[in-house]
Amino acid sequence: MKGKALADYTIEDVSALLRENVDAVFVADSDLNEYKSIVRKGMFEQFMDESGSYHDLIEKLWFHFGDTNERITEDYHVFVSSYGEFKGKYSRRLRIKLEGSDQLHMVQMSVYPLANPKQYLFIMDELGDNEYEEEYSTAKKVNTIQNTYLFSMYIDIVHDTTSSISISEISDDTVNASIKYSEWRMMIVNMIWPEDQEQFLRRTDPDYLKKNFTPGRTSSFDCMMRNLEGKYIWVKLIFSRAETSNEDDYRFVFMVQNIHENSIELLSTLKKYEKLALTDPLTGIFNHGGIETEIYNAINIRSKTEEPVSLMMLDIDFFKKVNDTYGHAVGDMTLKQFTAIIKEEMSKEKAAVGRWGGEEFVVVCYGKNGNDLYDMAEELRTKIEKHEFPEIGQVTCSIGVTEMKAGEEFKELFERLDKAMYASKENGRNMVTIL
């Protein structure tokens, strides 16, 4: 039609114009799950077949990470059918990479509903390099500002609808998805960490949102959620009720923010301080609170299993003389070496070692009855007696041993252990007593 005057164009010329100027035209039926290509040129000859599954084509168009051809995890494909239905004319930009190619293609897509319900006409054109660069620069600026927001949408609880859905990892544009809010909740809950699912369903329940949100109020909660790669990450789920003139309107903005890196750093810091709170700074083993907690845990475990649990208490004999004679620096060094000997001796066992206070130490040993631990305590006592401690030479210790009884309380157990240790003291020291 080259050289034809504008006044001479007619509706009959449209078909030829499309064939000459448009890169791809196809019709689709979402109910029959079919599409048929009318025109395929350039990259579209490789990207799509002459005909095939409409759902598969929607997956290729939408369900990949923004600037790659890497597909999104199968779990999210449950939303494919929602993306392929259109209530009216629709237009958007797509970024597509062909299999085996590093080249990114920017595509303008327009969708026109046909007379038959669930049937659509798609017209797609690849944009030129200049158009792509402008689009890419604009998108980059937006991503710089909103790169932590993975997902957002608008919700109308009264009409049970969603709209203006945006998934930043797929595209910068909002997507057309025909899905009810009630349906979305029951599909997305499967992406939430199992332990967080109950909280998610409770906090996203329409009745909860109506009851707890006044116009303009925003609230959020943190949980773990499977991302588009199929990996669980920490996210912040944010609900904000829109302010409208009608108090019976219940419209919300919902957003998912990626807080994974910050959460992991915070958890790591909390773990470090938790360890410091339970650790004796001098010896590096459990402090009084830490080993006391371990004893309570052992009591709880013993109440549920038949596996024996036994305890050992050690006290360094005449330790006050060490501090008085050689000074506290030598005394601290002696405590460290004493601890190292206990840890080495118990390293092959399922055991927890803690400093009860001063020169007193407690060991909780799992899987050993009283007689087993008595024999181990004798070996430990002998090893300590023979050890050459710097500056002071030899020291000895008095040890008490007892086996935990099923159902007994902490006070009863510890009093028996303490009594066993003091019996060793009273009977001449440098010995083991079992009660």
Attribute tags:
435 residues, alpha+beta, Beta-Lactamase, Alpha-Beta Plaits, 6-stranded antiparallel sheet, 14 helices, 17 strands, 37% helix
Write structural notes for this entry.
The chain is α+β, with helices and mostly antiparallel strands and 435 residues long. It has three domains: 146 residues, 2-Layer Sandwich (Beta-Lactamase), CATH 3.30.450.20; 128 residues, PAS domain (Beta-Lactamase, 2-Layer Sandwich); 156 residues, Reverse transcriptase/Diguanylate cyclase domain (Alpha-Beta Plaits, 2-Layer Sandwich), CATH 3.30.70. Helices cover 37% and strands 27% of the residues. Strands 3-2-1-6-5-4 form a six-stranded antiparallel β-sheet, covered by helices on one side. A hairpin with a 5-residue loop joins strand 10 and strand 11. The chain is elongated and about 120 Å long. About 4% of the residues have low confidence.
Helix residue percentage: 25-40%
**Helix/strand structural class:** alpha+beta
Rounded to the nearest angstrom, the distance between the terminal CA atoms is 106 Å
Annotated CATH architecture of the largest domain: 2-Layer Sandwich
Query: What is the CATH top level name of the largest domain?
Result: Alpha Beta
In total, the number of domains comes to 3
The 3D shape can be described as elongated
Biggest pleated sheet: 6 strands, antiparallel
Task: Summarize the model shown.
The protein has helices at 14-21, 44-47, 54-62, 80-83, 129-146, 181-188, 197-204, 206-212, 260-278, 288-304, 319-326, 328-346, 370-386, 410-426, and strands at residues 24-29, 34-40, 51-52, 90-97, 104-113, 119-126, 149-156, 161-167, 174-175, 218-226, 232-241, 251-258, 309-316, 351-357, 360-366, 397-403, 432-434. By secondary structure, it is α+β, with helices and mostly antiparallel strands.
